[in-house]
């Protein structure tokens, strides 16, 4: 079982204050509302030793953090990264809106704003290494972490060190201008998130952007989550190696 922590009211209040300071008044008001909605469902996996620790935000696909076909996939992965010395926090945009699955009203751009709000919240926590806050997203969550690159405020200064997008739904995205390093992992046979659209999107980015796109032959949608429909053991192992390399840079 993961170490689950719900933030106390004082910790959330402190975090909100720091969010307001970091993002400016108008953006901060929006960010504070997002944190208030998300905080009751913060599931945090934290190493049992003194910090500060690098932080990973997990952003699920449309079926949430406990999909029927693989209900423990995200928690298992969180435990893996906790063992590597990371704090992992679930950004449960579905629970924050009282949903179990996506509806048409949920957009990658809006979830990306949740990601940035939580990143600023983590930036203010004493046990977090504020220079090493990253986000992993799957499917629509993968599109969201890419969208978050351009959701940092007018000055374009991002609290994110890097993002990893697994089989993102790139049809929901436009080229971004933020310069947060990104790793995009794609399944060549993905019927839900066309990898060609992601490749075309990456090709439209400005020169010098630190974005890598990897395509895995014969892999489908969300190929890396053990037990999920479309899981591909070989592609998952190869992608894990890429992610470890990318995160160690």
Count of helix runs: 8
What's the average pLDDT? 87
> CATH class, please?
Alpha Beta
CA(first)-CA(last) distance: 29 Å
Portion in helices:
25-40%
Strand fraction = 15-25%
The counted number of beta strands is 7
Taking pLDDT < 50 over at least 5 consecutive residues as the criterion, the unreliable ranges are 1-26
Domain tally: 1
Q: Please give the radius of gyration in angstroms.
A: 17 Å
Name the shape in a single word: globular
Explain the overall architecture:
The protein has one domain: Alpha/Beta hydrolase fold, catalytic domain (Rossmann fold, 3-Layer(aba) Sandwich), CATH 3.40.50. The chain contains eight helices and seven strands. By secondary structure, it is an alpha/beta fold. The chain has a seven-stranded mixed β-sheet with strand order 1-3-2-4-5-6-7, with helices on both faces.
